[in-house]
């Protein structure tokens, strides 16, 4: 054995223990125990509250973290009841239908519930809907668990609310503590939590003064907290709405309270961390979720739920915010033992102490290693010199040969080609990235697959050596043929080490072979051409027959597309016209009825829920109509949300009435669209043949007129065409035609009816009322033209004109010295549904210079009920700018008080019908109750239609805020307002 080899073996013997030492001194990686694999199971997670609610999200995160962390995680299904925002029977029924529909074919093996509502639902319906699966509850307190009627086949995690540890911590940190301000809301859970916390504090230390803050608004809470003395703290529980009923985001309110408070704000739940929480003994939703998931995994492994004890002590953590400690000048050293501190400044040494010491030790070893390496530098140089000589010999051998030498290192898949390969093809070395397989890009596309197949065949041991012929593209663009041979070298275990061989340029040989093949093919093709001529003639004949069949099929397809609606599949308008004309031609002495249906409020469904949702609804309407077919009726989609029914062979008028009643009743049943339930009605116009028309055009026109009359009668009803409807329709068209030029011709004007503050007797402002004096029609009542303007959408430019003129008028009054006057303007639902409504209102205020707090928008109650989701956000944005929102004609609608609390309004307007009848005790009590309701909700109340001193006296006694009516003044033309105001002030 040579000296060099001895030195190399000695070097390896030193390197191996050195590398082992370096590996052992590096920080140890986390050991992952092989989790026991579980069979695939389905876990249903039911949340009481909505996604996005911090408490619910924390529990959900803990559950998913545990379940997905197993080796064989179960399938997780998650549902949200949204009970905090919608605690109604309707929501419960909808949630029941959702669970029944979605899980009718899915076996549920375990149910995890968060909070009380979901637990109650699961206990009530798990036998009926959920496979009698065991239940694991989370987020339920001790009282809730004790009150469960049946605890079999269930276990869970008790949410133990205990404010005592937090109060002890606060007293340790501030020995002067005497006052505790407790924040909770007026919801059922909020009140129970608040009472529980205050009882716990009283039991712990009766000397502490407790101040509940549930009767304060958000602004009052923040203002009170900002002025507290140093002997006080704020303790915040859950918080969803303030005393005025406003819904708040917990994170935002907690952050604002923490910033404004002059004393520490302690919490009882850890989702307040990083949102203004000072700290405390905090209940962790994530820990409860993790514990519940651990219990579920035990059940999935085979344990019985009833045999697993309920967990009561695994969901609390003592946590404090470093930034808050610094703000109130409290050292972390004073915190109770075992406390966590979040947001603490980063310390590299303390965090990575073991790593630092390991690196120092490794550095010392590396210095020793370098010294050893220097000792063997000379040895490496001698080895390199020997390698260079060996390479020279190899290069001379390859240059002297016509063959190309190629080689592949199978461990790195790096290719090597001798210089002759580059000379033959004309490329520079590494021009093709050939060492990384780029040479495959110049293989002829027809040869690449065969070359790869032969290579794999040899590497898999199915051939003794590799042999292939293929073409490669030279740099000049021509393809050259190569004959390649090679063999793979394997190690003792059968693994690949090296794959090498040679290739020879055989382009000339392939050229001769190609010429011979071409000559043979030319002879063969001549024969084939002669035999193919007969086949071609036969094929052309067959194509003629085939084309004739295709033409007939295409004609049938185009006719189907032309006469049927693509969306619903029903016959379309063109099909209706032909059907009517054919019926009239063939049944000149017969009787029929044409029903024209228009879906009510369909545009609002499209605007609020999307056109895809609307299209699905139209499809279901078509299907429901078809299900009512009795053989005498045929259904058509006329266009948009309009459908037409041709009812043939009518024997007497009663049949038409009965069929119309059945159509109206058919729309009483709601439509199920995915997870939504939609209630719609249809307005139906009926024209009878031949009484109401003897042509298709006349029947359609008269049925359309009757349909519009049905809509005006209240929607969800039907009307049979009569001659008086034609006169009404003609009058309507005349009004619409003249109304189109009313704004541009300055035919519109505004009258202003004063509103008086009953407390001070001073003028508050005016309500703007539109008037139209047409040079052709004369004075037209707003009751006549406003509805027409809404139907044809002229209300959009007219409404903007009214708003702009009223704001400009009010600003002019203020400039004349009448400061503080407000203006109230009525708004149509058509305007509110526009995407740019909010921007339009703000633009008008900016253009006229009127401050937002002097503008009040009047909205009818029916507008909210039709399109609450679509318009509520717009009005909320305007309200935040200071603009008043008045609910007009209150008491004549049908919304519940719980629904009314969610509306973004500032004022209730009592309808005139209540004021007219206050001389009777019952109506007087009702009007007084409306004022009380408005004040309890934090709203101003305005009475309309005040005409007598007795009415005024009664409203003053009930503390109604504002009044308007003929007792104060009738509506005043714009030019006379300034004089009227001056006269009133002088009087």
UniProtKB/TrEMBL annotation:
Domain (GGDEF) ranges: 590-723
Protein name stated in the entry: Diguanylate cyclase (GGDEF)-like protein/PAS domain S-box-containing protein
Domain called PAS: residue spans: 390-462
InterPro entries assigned to the protein according to its UniProt record, in alphabetical order: ABC_transpt-TYRBP-like, Biofilm_reg_signaling, EAL_dom, EAL_sf, GGDEF_dom, Nucleotide_cyclase, PAC, PAS
Chain segments annotated as coiled-coil in the UniProt record: 513-547
Keyword terms: Coiled coil, Membrane, Signal, Transmembrane, Transmembrane helix
Residues spanning the membrane: 354-377
Domain PAC, chain residue ranges per copy: 466-518
Signal peptide per UniProt: 1-28
Residue intervals of the EAL domain: 732-985
